[in-house]
Design a protein that fits this description.
Elements (H helix, E strand, L loop, with lengths): L6 H10 L4 H14 L3 E8 L4 E7 L7 E7 L6 H11 L5 H4 L12 E7 L5 E7 L8
Parallel strand pairs: 3-4
Antiparallel strand pairs: 1-2, 2-3, 4-5
C-alpha cells in the first residue's frame, strides 16, 4: 500500500480512521484515476470519523463532495446530518444580509460512495431535506 501513488495523500486519514480506510482508498482511487476529477483533496470529516473527498468532475467547475462508506456499515440519519453540517456549514448572520443569488439558493447535496469487498462502488446522490426532482 505504501508504494501506491495515492498513499501520501491518504496516509493521515488511514492512520486516523482505520475502520473507514478501505472505503476511502477505493473511492479516492476511483475518483482520481478512473473518473479523473480535478482539484481533488481529502478533507477531515471528524463528525463521521472518516475522510471525505472534495473535487470537481472533469469539464465542470462545481465543487462536489463524496463521503465513502462500506456496504456493511450501518448509517443513521444523524450521521448523514452530521456530514451535511460539516460539509455545508450554515452561513453566519453577516453572510445572510447580502443579496443571495440563485446559485446560492441551490439545495446542498453530497455523494455517498458505497463500497464493497469485491471492489464495486455505487454513488448515491443525497440532498439535504426534501427536494423536488427536475422535470
Amino acid at each position: 500500500m505504501e508504494s501506491h501513488t495515492s498513499f501520501p495523500v491518504l496516509s493521515p486519514f488511514i492512520a486516523k480512521y482505520p475502520r473507514a480506510s478501505s472505503s476511502l482508498v477505493q473511492a479516492y482511487n476511483d475518483i482520481v484515476y478512473a473518473q479523473q476529477w480535478n482539484d481533488v483533496e481529502v478533507i477531515d470529516l471528524e463528525s463521521c470519523s472518516r475522510g471525505a473527498i472534495k473535487g470537481k468532475k472533469a469539464g465542470t467547475e462545481e465543487t462536489l463532495y463524496v463521503v465513502p462508506c462500506a456496504l456493511a456499515e450501518t448509517l443513521s440519519f444523524a450521521w448523514l446530518q452530521d456530514a451535511f453540517a460539516q460539509l455545508f456549514p450554515k452561513p453566519s448572520s453577516a453572510d445572510t444580509s447580502e443579496t443571495s443569488t440563485p446559485a446560492d439558493s441551490t439545495t446542498p447535496f453530497l455523494y455517498l460512495a458505497i463500497t464493497s469487498q469485491d471492489a464495486s462502488i455505487v454513488y448515491y446522490k443525497l440532498s439535504k431535506g426534501i427536494v423536488k426532482p427536475p422535470v
